[in-house]
Amino acid sequence: MSAFDLPLDQLRTYAPEVAEPADFDTFWADTLATSRAVAAEPSFEVVETPLRTITTFDVTFSGYGGQAIRGWLNVPVGASAPLPTVVQYIGYGGGRSLPHEWLTWASAGYAHFVMDTRGQGASWSPGDTPDLEDAGTPATSGQYPGFTTRGLERPETYYYRRLMTDAVLALDAVAAHPAVDPARLVVAGESQGGGLALAAAGLSGAVRAALIDVPFLCHWRRATEITDAYPYREIRHYLAVRRDEVDAVFETLAFFDGLHFAPRATAPALFSVGLMDETCPPSTVFAAYNRYAGPRSIEVWPYNGHEGGQMVQQLRRYRFLADLGIAP
Questions:
Q1: 297 in helix, strand or coil?
Q2: DSSP letter string over 84-149?
C-alpha cells in the first residue's frame, strides 16, 4: 500500500461540482415522514451481562417503513442525570455483535447506542436485523454480491434508502430513553458507519456533533474510477455486466452520496482520513469534508490506510466533544 490519490495540498481544496438531484430534499422528506408515520414506541429491555459498571439494554425501534431494527444501549451504572449520547453506526458487513464489545464510550461516562445494520452481520461481526423490502415491491431484479447494488435500479428501492432512514430514526428512538439527553446527541461511525453518520447529520436536526471517520458512501463515481478495492468494486462489477445502465446507476447513487448530505449538515464535525486508504480514497473523503456546512476539522493520518487513527483517533474524539462541552 502506498499513497495513490491527490497530494495533500490539493486534497484540502478538492471540492468537485457534482450534480445534485433536483428532488433530493423532497425525496428524503417524504421518505422520513412516511416511516415516522408508522413508527412504534421503542422498547428497552435490560440484558444480563457480566459487566458491572455498565447497564445494557436490548433495543428494538422502528426504522424504514416501521420495520423493527435492533441495537444495544450501554449506560454507565449509577448515572443520575440524562447523559450525552453517542449513536454509533457500524462498518460494512458488520452487525451489533455482543454488548461487551462496545465499552469505549460508556466507560468514559457517555450513554452509547449501537445500531444494528439491516441485512448485514455475516462478514466480521454478527447482526440480528433482516433487510425487508417493501411489501409487494421487490428491491432488485439482480445484484452483485454485497449491498451496494441491492435495489440499485431506482432510488425508491435502493438498499441505502432503508439503511439511512434507520440511521435517522435511531436518533428519534434513543432520545426516548430517560438516561439520554436529547439535546446532546452525537453521531459516530467509521467507513460505512462514517457515511451513515454524515447522512444522519444532514437529515436530522437533532444532531449536536458528528464524528465521521474514513467515510464510505461519498463521491461514488470517483471512487469506482480510482480504486480496485471493495465495496466500491461491487458497483464496477455490476456496471461491467449492465453496460447500458451507467447513467441511471449514478443518478440513483446521487440520492445517497455524502457530497449532498454534507452541505445540509450544520453540527460541528470531526472527520478523519488515511492518506493510504484504498477502500475509501482520500479524495472522496475530502470531497465531502470540503462541502460540509458546519464547523469542521479533520485528522489526517499520512501512513495509514482504511484503519485510520484507530484508538489514537478515539482520544481525539474524546477531546473534540469535551471542547464542545459535550461531556458527562
A1: strand
A2: EEEEEEPPTTB----GGG--TTGGGT-EEEEE--TT--SSSB------PPPTT--S-S---SSSTT
Residue type, 168: V
- Domains of the chain listed by start with CATH number: 21-323 (3.40.50.1820)
Give residue-wise pLDDT tens across range 218-275. 999 999 999 999 999 999 999 999 999 999 999 999 999 999 999 999 999 999 999 9
**Options 191, 204, 272, 283, the catalytic residue:** 191
pTM exceeds 0.85 for this model: yes
Whether 219 is catalytic is no
Identify whether 191 is a catalytic site residue: yes
Query: What separation in angstroms does the CA of 232 have from each of 110, 235, 264?
Result: 34, 6, 24
CA 185 to chain centroid? 14
Answer yes or no: 306 catalytic: yes
Beta bridge partners of 276: none
284-295 confidence digits (pLDDT tens) = 999 999 999 999
Q: Going along 14-65, which residue ranges are E strands? A: 43-47, 54-62
pLDDT band at 7 (very low <50, low <70, confident <90, very high): very high
